[in-house]
Amino acid sequence: MSKGFASNYRIVLLASGVFLGFALVGFRLVQLHVLDRERLVRNVDRVRDSFVVEQARRGDILDARGDVLATSRSLIVLGVDPQALRPEDEAKWPELARLVGLPAAELTRILRTKTRSFEETPAAAPSGPTTLPAITLSQDVDEAAPSGERVIRWTKLSESIEESTYDEILKLGVKGVYGTRSYRRTYPRNGLAAHVIGFVNKENTPASGTEAFADFYLRGQDGWRESEKDGLRRELAQFRTREVRPTDGYSVMLSIDSAVQHMIEAELQAIVAKFNPEKATIIVSDARSGFILGLGNYPNFNLNEFFRAPLESQKNVAITDQLEPGSTFKIVAAAGALEEGLATPGMRFDCSAETTIYKGKSIRLMRDDHEWDHALSVAEIISHSSNRGAALLAMKLGDQKFHDWSRAFGFGEISGFPFGGEIPGQLNRPEKWSGIDITRIPAGYSVAATPMQIHYAMGVIASGGELMRPQIIREIRDSQGEAVYTFGGVARRRVIGEQTASQMAQMLQGVVGPNGTAAKAAIPGYLVAGKTGTAQKIINGRYSNRNHVGSFVGFFPATAPRVVITVIVDDAKVPGGGAGYGSTVAAPSFKHIAEQLISYLDIKPAVPVAGRPLFALEGGRR
Amino acid sequence: MNKSDTHAFVNQLLVYTLVMICFTGSVGLSTVWFRHRISVTANESRKIEASLLEVERRIAETTALIAAEQSPNALEQKNTVMRLGLVRTREAQMVRISESPEQRLASRRNIEIFTEDSVRLAPVNFRVAAASR
């Protein structure tokens, strides 16, 4: 080291520099911690810990083919701060009105309203078909003005601006117009399968249907992160301390097929147009597994506008309403008697007598629609829908056994449909029966059932003797689309043997035969089995001759059932003043739906339908 | 050159002090630089997250739009508006065949090729080459 560098002069200079430096640092510390403390602490206070919740995306509801029935999408709640508007932006207001979907005059009025009086009710944003009623403006968006009025700091313009539209609004550059994003549930198919899908309300609470029932799978788990934010409330990402990623909800795949559902709802519309009923229900299910392929009710509602729908139309009447099943109930007595070996399809019963002896007493039988000139076989009792014949079959079983058979077919107990407030219907115990109930219940009176119970009772015969559980959820999928859990068909119990089911199916084919009660349900080339039902409604405590519940429940092909279809029309107004018999108001709809299902589900006929060679069959060449 | 012990000690002390100051300063600067980089990276990461969310939002919006366009009602409406005249197939229009359709079509094609009629319909022409000299 050189002598010059180590001279006293330089040492003193360097030491002074170093100490001066430390002194400056010390002074700065004193300045920061003592002199400017108050101001700086205020700034520090603005830089606070930030706890941000990251919302998990709610899973989708899919139909059986993976098409989206319910999904979540971000929509923008658009508002304006009238105080921040600039005069030079006024030329852009008409374009803004177009994008927001408001009349230009209405938008101008909103933008020019800069204050409101204390007493004044906050102005409601106009609500169109796609907008919801405006939220009540709270005090934190208004400020008190010296004049005694409130200065408006935020007025909502629309609650459902799409991302693409919002981009255009931002491009306009109108100062003071801004939006906040939120994930909103949307139902791309509007009212399709509304009673099955259900909806999430405006508080993001699942209110009904699959949305509520499968919420555990759908909702996912919100994430969160702890970090700090700067004075402008921007997150300082480098100070993130803890972070838990959100887990998106699972998707729920239903057994409902959109195409089948659409057929059902189109048919319901046709029924409404033709008969103007009070209510109507159509159910289509897979005969073997019991999965529901489609379920529609009238009245229905649009899921995207659930807040406008009356509560009555939001009810899934297929499980919440009970009705007297009428003749569709006759399958119980017939199947029970066959299974017990008390009758055979060819056994004949005298159905011409008005009375019979039961338990040693003379008992009056219900009237039949026709006079019979011969004793009816069990097959004829079914195909001609004889009330007396059904009663005689039930009497062979006896009160208790007939009751037990009715229970076995699922009447008087909930079917197990997973949601919607299902009711069990009404099937009294034999101790509570009146003397004539054994003549009435076999014909479907003095007993109440839901459309779902009626449907699955017929399903017993279609499935080969098992009572299936109505199932609607087929699969749970994760956010990557992989199946997490798959549901299969569940039999609640075996009710009758396969041989009895086969005999019943054969007898039920007679119903759609030329001499049956529902020839209108016959489909050329196909073996259709089914049963009509017509029950008089109780009006003012008496059975009405003018108000009926008409129904048809059937399945096909009868020898190897693929689908079970139920059509129930409540209080149809038949043109010309006729009665709303099941054969008139329900059987044609059964046929129409079945014909569409044939091509859609590729259900093969028992005998070829086409009478001539087709062009395509010839190899497409001529 | 001053080689006394005092000066040597002071020189060494100064050198060490300077080295220490430089080292500490370097560490401090490095720390600041690292913090800056962490901040920059974190902000970039946040921006990427935001853009990913943006993409997810767009996907969700597009999915909803596609689903709405594919709804049976919308398709039927398009069928009417665009006058496509599409109708459902009726059973009477169908002939169901149990055998393989490919084999059926292939055998039919082969029959057409090898039948006597086909041979007659497709005469073979022979071109006679002219002799040149």
Please specify the SSE layout and strand pairing.
The complex is a heterodimer of chains A (622) and B (133).
Chain A: H1 8-35, H2 37-46, E1 49-54, E2 61-62, E3 68-80, H3 93-100, H4 104-112, E4 115-117, E5 142-144, E6 149-152, E7 155-161, H5 163-172, E8 177-186, H6 194-197, H7 209-213, H8 215-218, E9 223-229, E10 235-236, E11 242-244, E12 251-254, H9 258-275, E13 279-286, E14 292-298, H10 311-314, H11 317-320, H12 330-339, E15 348-349, E16 355-358, E17 361-364, E18 376-377, H13 378-383, H14 387-397, H15 399-408, H16 437-440, H17 451-462, E19 466-468, E20 473-477, E21 483-486, E22 491-494, H18 498-509, E23 529-539, E24 542-556, E25 563-570, H19 582-585, H20 587-600
Parallel strand pairs in A: 2-12
Antiparallel strand pairs in A: 1-9, 2-3, 3-7, 3-8, 4-6, 5-6, 9-10, 9-11, 12-20, 13-14, 13-25, 15-18, 16-17, 19-22, 20-21, 23-24, 24-25
Chain B: H1 5-69, H2 72-81, H3 101-114, H4 116-121
